[in-house]
Design a protein that fits this description.
Elements (H helix, E strand, L loop, with lengths): L5 H5 L7 H15 L9 H15 L2 H10 L32 H9 L19 E7 L1 H6 L1 E12 L8 E6 L8 E8 L2 E8 L8 E6 L8 E12 L8 E4 L15 E7 L6 E3 L2 E9 H6 L1 E7 L2 E7 L8 E4 L15 E8 L6 H14 L1
Parallel strand pairs: 1-9, 11-15
Antiparallel strand pairs: 2-7, 3-6, 4-5, 8-9, 10-11, 12-13, 14-15
Bound molecules: zinc ion (2 copies).
Length: 362
């Protein structure tokens, strides 16, 4: 493995403050998170950033690193004070697809060890949730309010989410709220600091534990939530609803709810941004002479003028009948492609008329 300058990886100077390191990490982690960045090598870069942050974000490790350089952290080294494989890379998959880089970084910060004492973890935040919501093109056209039902860990009503009453220091972590754990992840083995299970990372336990939620402060509950879907929303868009994720452990902050929009295919129209595309069938006589025809819209029907001399494949525009623009006033259009139909069978009389027409065209 190549020698790494963790300061360079995060793009901060040697004397950078914790805040600077944290800010640099957040920026880079967002940029290279494999869920957000599909470029090749993003996962490796993300791993490298986490590695650097896990060392520089932890006072003890940073001191060691400043003194001995990256040698102190080599894979399988085993000679350093940290034992082998002490990269403390972060297993982001355990965060339910969440992008809470703050709490990830706090996990690094909290990694100073049990001796640290009074430091408390903030990892009691509830998980983020994702909900896939299907909407029709008609819904997208003007925007819509939808009610969805979500079953999740909600705040326990009996103890107001606190989990109990009468606080005492946790006897397992002695108030630190954290313990170390080795995990296998797609990127290899990592040691992570995780919240203490006895106290859910809070560092304290209750004298009187709430019997309704067994001290977690959370209860399974089905909740109806109204989602405001703006007009013109695109397939795959994510709407974030602050605090509508799972409740935190023992009064911790709630996670967020992400609504992922799926726009159902439509029988008549295809979508092109805020325009709609469809076909109109007309006879070759209508094409030649021009006509007024009924065409479908999202609201029903409209009449459209076919100009004389319309050619097969011509596109006629019905203005303002498309989808409402999301970021500006007005609407898109409907674009109709002309399909000109030629009769398969003709009567004698029709044939005669067409032959006369042909002769007149020569
Ligand atoms: Zn504990
Ligand atoms: Zn309770």
């Amino acid at each position: 493995m190549a020698e790494k300058d963790y300061y360079k990886v995060l793009g901060v100077p040697k004397g950078a403050s914790k805040e600077d390191i944290k800010a640099a990490y957040k920026k880079l982690a967002k940029q290279h998170h494999p869920d957000l960045n599909k470029e090749e090598g993003a996962a490796d870069k993300f791993k490298e950033i986490n590695e650097a942050a896990s060392v520089l974000g932890d006072e003890e490790k940073r001191k060691q690193y400043d003194q001995y350089g990256p040698d102190a952290f080599k894979y399988g080294g085993g000679q350093s004070g940290f034992g082998s494989q002490d990269f403390s890379g972060f297993d982001f998959s355990s965060f339910g697809g969440g992008f809470d880089f703050d709490s990830i970084f706090d996990t690094f910060f909290g990694g100073g060890g049990m001796g640290g004492g009074r430091r408390r973890a903030r990892s009691n935040r509830g998980s983020d949730l994702a909900y896939e919501l299907s909407v029709s093109l008609e819904d997208v056209s003007d925007g819509v309010k939808k009610k969805i039902k979500i079953t999740k860990n909600d705040e326990c009503a009996k103890c107001d989410g606190k989990g109990g009453s009468g606080e005492d220091t946790c006897t397992v972590c002695h108030g630190a709220g954290m313990y170390r754990e080795t995990r296998r992840t797609p990127f290899g083995m990592f040691q992570t600091t995780a919240p203490c299970r006895n106290c859910q990372g809070s560092g304290s336990i209750f004298k009187h534990v709430c019997d309704d939620c067994q001290g977690t402060g959370r209860k399974r509950n089905t909740k109806t939530i109204e989602v405001n879907i703006p007009a013109g929303i695109m397939e795959g868009a994510r709407l974030r609803m602050n605090g509508e994720g799972e409740a935190g452990y023992r009064g911790g902050p709630s996670g967020d709810l992400y609504i992922i929009i799926h726009v159902e295919p439509h029988d008549v129209f295809e979508r092109d941004d805020d325009d709609l595309l469809s076909d109109v069938r007309i006879s070759f006589v209508q094409a030649a002479l021009g006509d007024k025809v009924k065409v479908p819209t999202l609201k029903g029907e409209a009449s459209m003028r076919i100009p004389a001399g319309t050619q097969p494949g011509d596109v006629l525009r019905l203005k303002g009948e498309g989808l409402k623009h999301m970021h500006s006033f007005g609407r898109g259009d409907i674009l109709f492609t002309m399909i000109v139909e030629v009769p398969r069978h003709l009567s004698r009389k029709q044939e005669k008329i067409l032959k006369e027409l042909e002769a007149s065209l020569e």
